[in-house]
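Lay summary

Proteins are chains of building blocks that fold into shapes. Our project writes down both the chain and a compact code for its shape. Here are two examples, one after the other.
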Amino acid sequence: MTVHHTSTGHFFEDFVPGDVYEHGVGRTITTTDNIWFTLLTQNTAAAHLDHAYAARTEFGKPLVNSTLTFALVNGQSVRDISHNVIANLGWDDVKIPNPVFEGDTVYSRTEILEKRESRSRPHAGLLTVRTEGFNQDGTTIMTFRRTVMVYKRGQRPSTAGDAGSEGTS
């Protein structure tokens, strides 16, 4: 029997400034996604919750909650960028140049901008990345910079699901 492990993600040593990661799985946002996320976060803006109201706005339909868009675009980058994160250290320059609507499919890509060794944690390094979210038409819907602290190879704590595979990707 052969055991196949899913990706354990990338480690600090794997990243090269200038490299771009195309995050492979898009996600179509449904009305249910938008309403549930909006309610969960206690955002009571009628533009997200009230379809009759939204129909009378300049957009003519509900806007997707921008923090849902942010969470989705950021989440799409995890497998490639921060699967082995110690901590997210910050998000900067968040921009929303175009609206997202229910029924849109969101995709994303991330460019590695900078990397450096951690001064306080020799088992880790810091990455600064720029992530761009775009819709099914290729229109940019969100951009942001993020700084993450990631483990170096062989330094990540193992989990029960690792079965000895940590650090071998």
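And here is the second example, written the same way.
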Amino acid sequence: MPPGKRELARIERRLIATLTDACEAAKAEIQGFTWLTHTADLNALAATLNVIWVFDTEADKNLALTDAKARLFELTATALREADIDLSPSERNVRFDSEEECQRTHGGNWRERLAQNTRGQR
């Protein structure tokens, strides 16, 4: 039986809390990292979850992908495990982006950018 609305709300709250912890750790450790978010259809979490790590500039993002990518995947894995979500982080569900690129391509409109990127992956 699929989880009900209350259970889905609990899952979402746990995920937000654990990703917030991962975000704060990354802010302290990784130059140029600014925030993270996620997108998901909670009714199909394993198939739709995307964690997006956002950096200030493309240069910061590229440096992090060279020097700290393993750490970002580790932080993601810890967050998912602590949220009781049985999903291994992979290139399919963990993405990296930058404020600079969002400004250039979507005029700084993250809602539009995330919606477009989510539709493009289905």
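What can we say about the second shape? The first helix runs from residue 5 to 29.
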